[in-house]
Structures are given as structure tokens and as C-alpha cells.
Write a structure and sequence with these properties.
Elements lengths: L2 H11 L4 E7 L5 H14 L3 E5 L10 H12 L4 H14 L4 E6 L1 H7 L1 H11 L3 E4 L8 H9 L3 E2 L1 E3 L5 H9 L5 E4 L12 H13 L5 E4 L5 H8 L4 E4 L1 H7 L5 H18 L5
Parallel strand pairs: 1-2, 1-9, 2-3, 3-4, 4-5, 6-7, 7-8, 8-9
Helix pairs in contact: 2-4, 2-12, 6-7, 10-12, 11-12
Length: 268
């Protein structure tokens, strides 16, 4: 059983959703982001999305966009992130790690070269934000050859017929976007989201994880009742960019993750 399957299987046995945390790598600098990821894992994160900063992050809201700008200004790049990811994968062999990126960066590195590197350093897959279904084969093939998952994305605007095609050969898990628009903390509509997740689960052979707009334990608890995984990004990055020195912000982030981890446990 591969690592992601093992994580979701264990979560089902424990009657909880998997907690997936997005981290903007290199924010506020490489050393600090490594500390932030380590803190998230120790506080209860099951899977980490390693966000690669990009100059035109069209799917990201203001919080993650600003973090990307700062990371890039500090010299963050994909090779440095992969070095950090290798260290983290060694220290936390039970944690899932997904490289979260836009295709421009992956093309520049080389898709075949990248997939071989991810396998070598112990990562589990890739989520390419702007890779459409019609063009996925060029990345899906090297992922498959290296035992990596290519995580699929669907949104409320995705017609069911297209969602079925996207999920037909999905791997690892499906990332269900809760709302139309960019990332960021916002008011969610639980009933609509729950209905959307229920339809996706009926049509998917792999777990469904819900992301976008989740900012606290209460929101995580509502989604964990139906989703197999709960994804949190902007709320985590927002705390890391708050007031006080970095150690204080890191402690506040730890408290957030601890609360989220508690609330993804389903009530008996």
C-alpha cells in the first residue's frame, strides 16, 4: 500500500478526515518555512502540500500571492524546495508530501527529470494547478512511471460529466474546490458544499478532499462529516504573516493546526 492510501485508510479506521496543510515554501524564508512545515506535521497534519512560489499565481488569493512574492524575492526556487522536501521526507516518513505548482515551473525543470527526482527523495505526487484534463498525459505518464500520484482538481463550476472524466483515472485523492474563485478565507455554504462532495464521492474511486475557504476548526468539522480530507492553506499562511516575531507566529500556527486536527475527527 502506498503512503497516501495508507494515510486515508488509517484516517477511515480512526473515523476522521485527513488533515492536509498547504505551505508557501520559502515564506518568509526557506529556513522558516521548513520550521513551519515541521510544526504543522507535529501538530497533526497528515499530508503537506509544498507550494512552489510563482510570479503569476492565478488561483491564489492575496495571502498566498503575497507570500509567493516574498519567497521569490528571497531567492526561493524549485531546486531549493526539493532539497528541503528531501530533508522533511527523511524526518517524517509517515507524512504525505505533494508538490503543488503551476506548469511553467515544472516545464522549466523538466517533467521527466522532476518525476524521477520526486521518486528519489520520497515525495508522493504532484498537483499542477493549471494542467487541464486534455493535456494531462504529458505529466501523467512520467508520474505513473515513477509511482507518483497526479492529484486532480474539480470545482463547483465543473459539470458532472467532465468531473467524471477527470476522476475516472484520478490518483491519490481528488482536490474539490469549495467555491468558485481564488484561495482565501471566506464564508462557506455548508449545505451546498456537502451536496457537491456527496456527488463527487459517488463518482470517485479515490478519496475526496475539500479545500478553499477553511479558516477554523468549526469549518473543518463541518466538512469532515463528508469529505475524506480537509485542506487548509490561506488561514495557515495568514497566521505566519501576522504580528510578533516568527516564534510567536509559529506558536499561533501550531495552535491552529492542533485545533483543526481535533475537529476533523467525526463525532460518534
Amino acid at each position: 500500500m502506498d503512503k497516501l492510501k495508507k494515510i486515508f485508510s488509517q484516517c477511515r479506521q480512526e473515523n476522521r478526515a485527513a488533515l492536509i496543510i498547504f505551505c508557501s515554501c520559502g515564506y518568509p524564508d526557506m529556513e522558516s518555512s521548513e520550521r513551519a512545515i515541521e510544526t504543522a506535521i507535529k501538530a497533526g497534519a497528515d499530508i503537506i502540500e509544498l507550494g512552489v512560489p510563482f510570479s503569476d499565481p492565478m488561483a491564489d488569493g492575496s495571502v498566498i500571492r503575497k507570500a509567493s512574492e516574498i519567497a521569490i524575492s528571497k531567492g526561493t526556487n524549485l531546486p531549493k524546495i526539493l532539497d528541503m522536501a528531501e530533508r522533511l521526507a527523511i524526518r517524517f516518513p509517515e507524512t504525505g508530501f505533494i508538490l503543488f505548482s503551476y506548469m511553467n515551473i515544472l516545464y522549466h525543470y523538466g517533467l521527466t527529470k522532476l518525476c524521477g527526482k520526486l521518486k528519489k527523495i520520497g515525495l508522493d505526487g504532484i498537483l499542477a494547478v493549471d494542467l487541464p484534463l486534455e493535456e494531462k498525459a504529458e505529466l501523467a505518464q512520467p508520474c505513473k512511471e515513477n509511482g507518483l500520484h497526479l492529484v486532480a482538481l474539480v470545482s463547483p463550476a465543473t459539470p458532472l460529466e467532465r468531473a467524471r472524466k477527470i476522476m475516472a483515472d484520478a490518483s491519490g485523492f481528488v482536490y474539490s474546490v469549495n467555491v468558485c474563485g481564488v484561495t482565501g478565507v471566506r464564508d462557506l455554504h455548508p449545505e451546498e458544499i456537502s451536496q457537491h462532495l456527496a456527488v463527487l464521492k459517488e463518482n470517485s474511486a479515490v478519496p475526496i478532499a475539500a479545500g478553499f475557504g477553511i479558516n477554523d476548526g468549526q469549518a473543518a468539522q463541518r466538512l469532515s462529516r463528508i469529505a475524506d480530507g480537509v485542506i487548509v492553506g490561506s488561514a495557515f499562511i495568514k497566521i505566519l504573516s501576522g504580528a510578533g516575531d516568527f516564534s510567536q507566529r509559529l506558536e499561533a500556527a501550531r495552535e491552529l493546526i492542533t485545533d483543526l486536527a481535533k475537529n476533523v475527527r467525526r463525532q460518534p
